[in-house]
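Support request from a user on the community tier.

User writes: "When I paste my structure tokens into the form, the page sometimes reloads and wipes my input. The last time it worked, I copied everything first. Here is what I submitted, just in case something in the input itself triggers the reload:"
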């Protein structure tokens, strides 16, 4: 037997087929890596109150009572079995004597879907497996593994199958340990066979903990080796050095800045300047709080590249943002942005906007300027790179507000031209350290924590519209007060309205995270819509104010015109979808009312409120919800309102979204290489594995001396399951 042996050769054909089909377990390796989800003990029945209707669960309990009666309205009989342990009781319901040999006093595992009848939780005809002291050795150990299971493959079938492997192999003796022995010794980790034995058949919680630690190492190290290999490969790629050259565009930008750079902006600027001067391409992630001034940092890097004779592209997630960037960069550069034009400065360059909505002629002209190199700075949306636009000499790509600019896109970029450009990815959605080390493990990161001084900050609160309707009236009043004081406001809704069906806003950036599922509940009214709300406000609480709407179904020209009017203070209140989520920069806007705030994700709300934190005046963000503040979602909103520390919120976000969502769909699926590792809890382990991975790859021999590890890495790297690295 080896790890690659098909299960069909060691288990019965029927079992092997069921395992393959319902749990995607095909080989001995798959089965051994199918770890218990938890362990049941006598006297610790899963608290029934904790079970959700619809959950599929397995519980360990003892039969207390069995009563059978005829059904009143239809033929047949109904048997109610009450099971329990020290902690609680639960009803099992069987129709027509399907309860077999359940007798009072018997212990068993019961698996089924939690239902509810007359307000009591129950299992309708669950599967069960009685435990008899003699044939079940595990029973003596009193720590019974509960495996992820399905209707077709129950936990106890998995348990039996593992036992079969164990007995056949005399203690997993055939399993070779991929971890180098001295690494194991250094971190005090048990061997793989020992860990597998302990995780599948523990005698104590200590066994489980020790085994889990070791098995997490397997996951973390393999992942980090893949990432380290990527970093190494990237470092060996030939790039073009773009060192600073005095007296050019960069100096002009610095001279034109209407403010002092913050310390953070300066430090990151130096980091970037040095990296752009090297001839291996930069791959850097810049995380900066909303409003921390990332654009200027990017602009200065772009200017350096232009000074060195290259071109720089700035990619925004939406056309609205791209247009805004092009406008503000052109304004900052003045004549330097119009080289070749009558009033242009010949020492400057050209800034062109290249988006899908340009008219054909303008588009042709822009493309020509990009191709002949006269446009040093090109602003567009992420689509720019996919559309086969030709650059004369692309030196730097800046990707704005896109924390999910995956490995795949980065690879595509590298394939552009014979020398890959430098790449800077910017995001205001803070990424917890563990995520930065895993999903972004192949990027170097910089952080801008500090906001420019003189900012008013944002005060946020939750408005429980159902519990306290008067608060909502007060919210509109506050908005009117701000407008009366000369300021402007946003009202944000989850939906556009009219003929859409509550689906996502179409122009939302593609990295917008959805609110957790619970928020989308089936029988609730549809989310509020921009078009309806604008009308209602116009006739009601905001009558007399100048309102405009902004959403993804408008033409790019109309959006652009509306943004301009808002920026020019011709509009008091912008009623919008999340198109305003990222980057929109109107410092005079100070109030934001988010309706149905529970429909948005944590980082989305943080982004949104960043729109009213951009000027000298204090911003106000009101999160309106009809849900109770005591609900999980209500608490999430309260958390958003109570802190403006993006890193803290990233943690809340990570806690409320299941980790599977972060590491990608593959993780929540059954077949993933990351099963035990937790992004929330295993920060230290991940960091240690990252160091070990770098050390292992530091020599030219790479993994040549560690064939076991090399095999694990190869499996992960070529495995389609590894797509979670890209998708996440
Ligand atoms: P973000 O990091 O969210 O993209 P921006 O780059 O849009 O932030 O900057 C937000 C605002 O702060 C802009 O109006 C910008 O001009 C201004 N800003 C940037 N840096 C500074 C600074 N050092 N001092 C004062 N204002 C600044
Ligand atoms: Mg920005």
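"...and here is what came back when it finally went through:"
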């Amino acid at each position: 037997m080896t790890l690659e042996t098909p299960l069909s050769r060691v288990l019965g054909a029927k079992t092997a087929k069921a395992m393959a089909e319902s749990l995607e377990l095909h080989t001995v390796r798959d089965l051994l890596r199918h770890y218990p989800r938890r362990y049941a003990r006598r006297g610790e029945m899963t608290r029934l109150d904790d079970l959700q209707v619809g959950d599929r669960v397995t519980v360990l309990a003892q039969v207390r009572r069995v009563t059978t009666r005829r059904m009143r309205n239809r033929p047949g009989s109904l048997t109610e079995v009450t099971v329990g342990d020290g902690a609680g009781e639960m009803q099992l319901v069987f129709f027509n004597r399907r309860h077999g040999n359940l007798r009072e006093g018997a212990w068993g595992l019961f698996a089924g879907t939690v239902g509810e009848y007359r307000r009591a939780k129950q299992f309708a005809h669950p599967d069960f497996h009685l435990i008899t002291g003699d044939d079940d050795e595990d029973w003596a150990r009193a720590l019974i593994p509960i495996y992820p299971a399905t209707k077709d493959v129950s936990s106890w079938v998995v348990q039996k199958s593992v036992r079969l492997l164990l007995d056949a192999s005399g203690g997993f003796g055939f399993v070779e340990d991929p971890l180098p022995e001295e690494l194991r010794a250094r971190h005090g980790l048990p061997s793989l066979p020992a860990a597998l034995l302990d995780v599948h058949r523990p005698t104590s919680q200590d066994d489980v903990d020790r085994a889990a630690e070791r098995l997490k190492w397997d996951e973390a190290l393999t992942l980090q080796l893949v990432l380290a290999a990527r970093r190494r490969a990237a470092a060996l790629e030939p790039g073009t050095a773009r060192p600073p050259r005095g007296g050019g565009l960069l100096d002009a930008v610095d001279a034109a800045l209407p403010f002092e750079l913050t310390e953070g902006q300066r430090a990151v600027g130096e980091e970037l300047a040095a990296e752009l001067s090297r001839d291996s391409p930069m791959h850097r992630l810049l995380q900066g709080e909303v409003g921390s001034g990332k654009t200027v940092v990017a602009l200065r890097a772009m200017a350096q590249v232009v000074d060195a004779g290259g071109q720089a592209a700035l990619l925004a997630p939406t056309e609205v943002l791209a247009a805004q960037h092009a406008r503000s960069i052109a304004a900052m550069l003045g004549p330097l942005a119009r080289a070749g034009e009558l009033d242009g400065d010949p020492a400057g360059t050209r800034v062109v906007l290249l988006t899908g909505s340009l008219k054909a002629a303008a588009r042709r002209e822009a493309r020509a300027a990009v191709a002949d190199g006269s446009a040093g700075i090109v602003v567009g949306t992420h689509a720019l790179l996919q559309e086969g636009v030709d650059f004369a000499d692309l030196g730097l790509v800046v990707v704005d507000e896109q924390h999910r600019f995956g490995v795949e896109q980065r690879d595509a970029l590298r394939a552009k031209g014979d020398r890959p450009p430098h790449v800077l990815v910017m995001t205001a959605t803070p990424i917890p350290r563990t995520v930065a080390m895993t999903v972004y493990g192949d990027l170097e990161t910089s952080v801008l924590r500090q906001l420019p001084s003189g900012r008013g900050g944002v005060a946020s609160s939750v408005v429980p519209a159902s519990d306290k309707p008067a608060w909502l009236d007060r919210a509109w009043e506050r908005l009117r007060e701000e407008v009366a004081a000369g300021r402007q406001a946003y009202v944000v809704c989850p939906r556009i309205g009219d003929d859409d069906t509550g689906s996502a806003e179409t122009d939302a950036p593609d990295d917008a995270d959805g609110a957790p599922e619970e928020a989308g509940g089936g029988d609730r009214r549809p989310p509020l819509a921009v078009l309806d709300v604008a009308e209602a406000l116009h006739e009601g609480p905001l009558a007399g104010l100048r309102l405009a709407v902004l959403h993804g179904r408008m033409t790019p020209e109309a959006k652009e015109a509306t943004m301009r009017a808002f920026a020019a203070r011709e509009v008091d209140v912008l009623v919008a979808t999340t198109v305003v989520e990222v980057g929109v920069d109107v410092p005079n806007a100070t109030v934001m009312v988010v309706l149905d705030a529970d429909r948005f994700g944590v980082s989305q709300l943080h982004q949104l409120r960043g729109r009213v934190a951009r000027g000298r005046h204090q911003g106000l963000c009101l999160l309106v919800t009809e849900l109770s503040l005591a609900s999980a979602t209500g608490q999430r909103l309260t958390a958003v309102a109570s802190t403006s520390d993006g890193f803290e919120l990233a943690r809340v976000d990570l806690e409320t979204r299941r980790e599977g969502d972060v590491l990608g769909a593959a993780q929540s699926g059954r077949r993933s290489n990351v099963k035990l590792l937790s992004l929330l809890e295993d920060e230290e382990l991940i960091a240690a594995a990252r160091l070990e991975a770098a050390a292992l790859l530091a020599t030219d021999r790479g993994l040549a001396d560690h064939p076991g590890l090399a095999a694990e890495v190869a499996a992960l790297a070529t495995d389609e399951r590894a797509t979670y690295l890209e998708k996440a």
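Agent notes: The reload is a front-end session timeout and is unrelated to the input. The first strand starts at residue 38 and ends at 40. Residues 458-498+526-657 form a domain with the Rossmann fold fold (CATH 3.40.50.300). Escalated to web team.
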